[in-house]
């Protein structure tokens, strides 16, 4: 930002306390028009609290907010009127409405008192085309792929007058090709003079996209630097400070033999603590059809991590409802240890030792109003004796699981709703992976988690496989698959297009295969 330019948005000495615990302390932040300013930090560092303050959703208890140089007591309405808009990870398009209706909601053009649809579609199409987005405006939001939804949502906020767009992990659940579309849109916005505050845990993405980067740690601003003046290791060091006890290499797939799944958990459900020889087939899917999946076959062996990779919504997202028993298959069989598991039966899936960890933690994974320890206990108790609450053991186990998965919060054992997204994800994994299992399905297990936690989760998953579990990983993240899996199955439009040992395929081939290329 030129020294004399007035920032479009400025925070001075902002602080925020939740129930006596400090989430933000004395944070300064500036954003210039036409700048992409990224905010990074470990889970719980204060990123969401900071951006909620920028949007008037949280009132800071110290410091001031300035828009175009003027001090403003920000409320959501004032922020909106000033053109400060946030695009959350949870998409807010109305599913049953068309793109044109969503873009112009509340402002549809009328002629003689009736909606002028031709003009509406033209206006919406022009708004999208201005930003380089090609999506037909008569499609409904429900039919959009996740990346298209993100693009339309960002375009809508820009079209409705957004001068400062706060993008909260817009690419978190997107593959590389889809993320690149979002990056193009962000660059288009920047060149039009829009200021963008960008939150992401993907530091490579940040380094390639941002102009400046602010690092938060424990609610404090550690540094603000030009992206061109910093590299990945320096950024990681600033984020973790002296907290890092091991190398934060997110691609280290080596299992840590000291951290295999809890020995103390072997009294729980499932089909017994087993340590198999590698090579034994454990989870078998035969001719499974449901939603977009068509006659899907897969064998996952004991001690093996098999990844199902593909664009989100292209078939691999059917696996969670099917394997967890939430949904009945139209055709085909699920077999665990050579025995059929009736589809559409949650109890049968659990009894067979199948553990399915959802990628949508708040919809299917956690009870937001209960504490972390209560959530951890629910899964364990539900598997065995739902009526018996043993409070002391619950607290002890809860503390151990929170420590092991690095669930950090300003309160010791808060309700899950008060946790940051990454800490919610760690709680979810601790709840399901802490129970004895034969096979597990992990849907996007590191979605929203920070670099250090990602490395920990990879070690834990490696440890599960090392102890004999068959691990199925459903992911859109090519790097995660390359770093973690032994085998990869690429699924497109519900069908397998490639099935390879991971050492017989390159990262670039996988990117091409998921984006539509052919297996060679
Ligand atoms: N409503 C709330 N009540 C109590 N504590 C809260 C509340 N909102 C946030 N916190 C706490 O404030 C701290 C900062 O959380 P915040 O969500 O801002 O972190 P974050 O950097 O966005 O993390 P993540 O990367 O995991 O999303 C955390 O310790 C969190 O538990």
UniProtKB/TrEMBL annotation:
Gene3D superfamilies: P-loop containing nucleotide triphosphate hydrolases (3.40.50.300)
SUPFAM superfamilies linked: P-loop containing nucleoside triphosphate hydrolases (SSF52540)
Name of protein: Sugar ABC transporter ATP-binding protein
Region described as Disordered: spans on this chain: 245-276
Key word Transmembrane present: no
GO molecular function, one term: ATP binding
Keywords: ATP-binding, Nucleotide-binding, Repeat, Transport
InterPro entries with a match to the protein in the record: AAA+_ATPase (IPR003593), ABC_carbohydrate_import_ATPase (IPR050107), ABC_transporter-like_ATP-bd (IPR003439), P-loop_NTPase (IPR027417)
Domain ABC transporter, first and last residues per copy: 9-243, 277-518
Transmembrane segments: none
Entries under Pfam families matching the protein: ABC_tran (PF00005)
Bias (Basic and acidic residues): 245-264
Entry keyword annotation includes rRNA-binding: no
